[in-house]
Description:
This protein has helices at residues 40-43, 47-54, 62-66, 72-79; strands at 14-15, 22-23, 28-30, 37-39. It is an alpha+beta fold. It is globular. It starts with 13 loop residues before the first strand and ends with a helix. The model has no long low-confidence stretch (mean pLDDT 83).
Amino acid sequence: MRVVPVFTTATVRTECDICDYRFDPLHGGVCEKCQRILCFKHLHGSWMRRLRVDLGARCICVECRAGVVHNETTEARTNDR
Length: 81
């Protein structure tokens, strides 16, 4: 009988739009406001915020919650890193 692993790591990876860190999509996500794909650090900021999202809060990134305006200058600044 063949054993099928239930919990395996994802083979798909994506990059954070801010820091270019490659991560498993389950550990990050998409901001509902700016529609950027972000890693855990830039999307949630803390495990407490992640818990709130899991319990029903809107998934808004750290920069959108802080009121940072996303425009071409912000994109140029993040791409220089």
